[in-house]
Amino acid sequence: MNDSAAQMPPGAGRESLRDARRIVVKVGSSSLTSVSGGISTTALTALANVLACRQLAGGEIILVSSGAIAAGLAPLGLVRRPRDLATQQAAASVGQGLLLARYTAAFAHHGVTVSQVLLTAEDFSRRTHHANAHRALERLLNLGVLPIVNENDTVATHEIRFGDNDRLAALVAHLVKADALILLSDVDALYDGPPAAGARRIPEVASPEQLAGIEIGSPGTAGVGTGGMVTKVHAATIAASSGTPALITAAGSIAGALAGEDLGTWFPSYGTRRPARLLWLAHLAGTHGRLHLDEGAVRAVRDRHSSLLPAGITGVDGEFEAGDAVELVDPAGRVFARGLVNYHAGKLPRMLGRKTDELATELGREHIRVVVHADDLVLLSPLGGP
Fold this sequence. Notes:
Largest sheet: 7 strands, mixed
Shape: globular
Helix content: 25-40%
Strand order of the largest sheet: 3-4-2-1-5-6-7
Number of helices: 12
Mean pLDDT: 85
Structural class: alpha/beta
Radius of gyration: 22 Å
Order of helices and strands: EHHEHHEHHEHEHEHEHEHEEEHE
Low-confidence stretches: 1-7, 220-226
Distance between the termini: 27 Å
């Protein structure tokens, strides 16, 4: 188990990266592709050289790498990233093996063994999947292997996919209790405006409030990536708010980043760790409906951290199954929490406002369950975040 977290106290500066033992590094497709659109051997090898050196010096590196779809374009005769899910899945299926083969060869030059770990959102939302993913990654690290993680694009659907690997990297960092997260981009830092217009680098973001009014870029026109700076900032904020500091910088600056140099944009940690499933629920889960609560239920959930009972629900919106994520809404119409619901949407209307013992008598013992358990709830701030 990683015991180096004590080296990275809340608010630690980027110089702490010099001594960080376990680091998650994420690299995007735009940082790995060549001018012709395929995977750049030069860029991939340069990254592997730096990460292998850190691994051989006693560090533990988990690499979250995009690029499977980009690697599969040329073999399939495609000139740009496909928009339909089925063709994306086909390209990922072809490209994932090619991408891993490149990494295997590059790291083998240094005597470093790599492995492939493909994850989906379900691996963070379901307790058993989460435990299995954690156990597998821990064992790989203990064996001295460098795991290479990617979203399982071949089987992921629009409804359950991350959509970009930045947020996946934030959850992986939380899952393995990483000391830091480094998000590599084709831009060297977050700026207070478009970099080409003479904007200034933002060296540190200590809280989400600092980002108010800043124009953050979306994906470029190259067509190989899905994130852009906005998802990197989101991922860095997710990590920092859950106890893992993060750095956004350019892929070519990875050596300097690991040395703790003053580059990129640093997000010092300011929150505490919590279950990865709740992190997913707060930031990534797609919600399928809303439960409207009376004031008493709002106070019970928000102030006393109680489970949600049918008696406190005044209305139901949306179509959802048991286990889906829903929003909890106060009488003023404000969403103040998210949770995993225990009932199908069609079963709730006849339960509203009624006590559980009454429901059990009339409808059966299966209706004695709470609607949303306290362990499956996350509260949101007035700004809309956790």
